Amino acid sequence: MLVPAVCAAVSANALLTEFGLGYYLGWWFTGLFAAALIPGALGMRAWRAGRPRHLWPFGTVVWLAVMLGRWALPEEDWQVSLVAAGVVSVILVMVILATLPKATPPPRSTVPAEALAAFNTWSEAVLQEGVLPILYTWINEATIAEHPTLLALREAPALVRADHVRMHVPTPASEELVRLVAGSEGGSFAVAGPRGAGKTHLLRAFCGGRYRDQTSAPDLAVLVSAPVEYVPHEFVLHLFAETCEAAIAHTTGHRTKRRPGPLASAAHENLVLLNYVRSYNREVGGKGGFKGFELNGKRAVTLAGRALTYPELVKRFRQFLALAAAELPGRVIVAIDELDRIGAGEPARRFLNEVKAVFDVPGCHYLVSVSTEAQYDFELSGIGLRSVFDSSFDEVVRVDYLDHRYAGALLRRYVLGLSAPFHALAYAMSGGLARQLVRTARAIVELGRERRARPLSEVAGTLVRAELLRTCRATADALTAVDDLDGVTALLRVLDEQPYDLYAYAQQVIKSYDGRSERVGRLRDAVGARVVFLATVLALFTDDVTEERLAAVDLDQLARARRYAGTNPAAGLDLLEDLRQRL
User: Fold this and answer.
1) CATH class of the domain at 172-285+295-398
2) Is beta strand 150-151 parallel, antiparallel or unpaired with respect to 454-455?
3) By three-state DSSP, how is residue 417 classified?
4) 27 Cβ partners below 8 Å, 6+ apart?
5) What is the pLDDT of residues 202-236, one digit of tens each?
6) Dihedral (C-alpha) 563, 567, 568, 572: value to the nearest 10 degrees?
7) Which of 42, 65, 250, 278 can pair with 32 through a Cys bridge, CB separation 3.0 to 4.6 Å?
8) Residue 305 and residue 575: Cα distance in Å, rounded?
9) How far is CA 496 from CA 460, 479, 508, 576, in A?
């Protein structure tokens, strides 16, 4: 680099002297400025070639040229000298760049497909679970709908995918469960609540890491369901196998060494042992003759079909969980979902009494979803009425129905452009059930995609007619198996009608049967209460409704009446009558 710089300095000085500018620029400034052109050109070439690390000479020489050149400039007319130096610099840079060969950029490093796929998955998760929910919430809270009773839906990708884990919204039940797990080094916790309230979503979100401190190590989380057919031995066997597979996947994904650790080795060994008991057979034989001597041997591994006994299975499972809790820096979480599917009463108690043998492992947290009956039995232990639920769980967390505030928070996070009246409509039709809220919101989204700017009354009418049709069809199907087929004829005819006035239709349904069948009477009362609820929804959600009017109505009471319509029709009708007087 020094030789081209000196040549450039001499050439520049001779050229400037020829034109009479040497006096103004001076030898030092001309040489240093010309010397700066060479590394500058090389730096530009390195930039074009994609090698920024070769740019360091450019900054050093330019700095020296500026400092020394300014010192060498004459005090008079230094502006003219600087302009002349700039002209010469441009000419020399053009000449140098024209003589340099075209640089070939180095080949780009190939990124492994697995790493690229993992990055894409991570970026998609950040977008869908982090950015969009917060962005949707901010936009919905900051935007005031110009026409709140018109369906002006923008986006709802989470409802289309129906990913309930991503749509999970923290509730008081989840906060209590997080507090209990964080405050203990192990234990068993029951998650109780009605079906559809969100117990499964809470367990999935917990096992998926939604409630884990991001500064702590990842959890070893296992989530299994408890089908009705399982006997305790088979269920524990299945739970043990799932835990071993999860441990292998967990250690493989977070271990840099090729050699498996003690936890992965134990998991592989237990997976083999859960299916078979290995036995080894060795045979050695030899023979001799005139042509020589021959020795042969054989070693075979035979897999016998003797299964572990239940005490052996429980012992090995507890030992494996203790090893996992000792080896892993994170928590060990075993979640059992849908235990209430086994049945109510004695079947569930008997099953839990057998399965709880694997509970109470130090360092391991068990999360079990149970029915509301388990919570009742657990609470009764405070007055001396102990049960298997009380002896199996340390605490019981109740997952209650969503209230209007939490339902609105969920919809604002995952639906963009849905105004408050439509939030209230979706909540009322869902009855506070998280699963039904997602279904109702998805139905509203579909209506908004079919035609924009649908009025609120039209959307409410469409939802009400669909709900009425499903209720009447389901009731008619149930009436075909009752013991009073002759007495239900009038009720079946009423169920086939398409009413205009729902209040009058509800009275017609209630008066259509006066027989002695208790089952038919319960079905009749449930349909009548459901029709009155739908009529109340139509009366409330009109095109002239305002947010002030919705705030004056107890929407939580309306959702509660929706739930009572199927379980306690008389209580539901009382709530609806109270609401009608305030409309």
Assistant:
1) alpha beta
2) antiparallel
3) coil
4) 13, 72
5) 999 898 888 888 788 889 999 998 766 667 788 88
6) 20
7) 65
8) 62
9) 21, 13, 12, 25
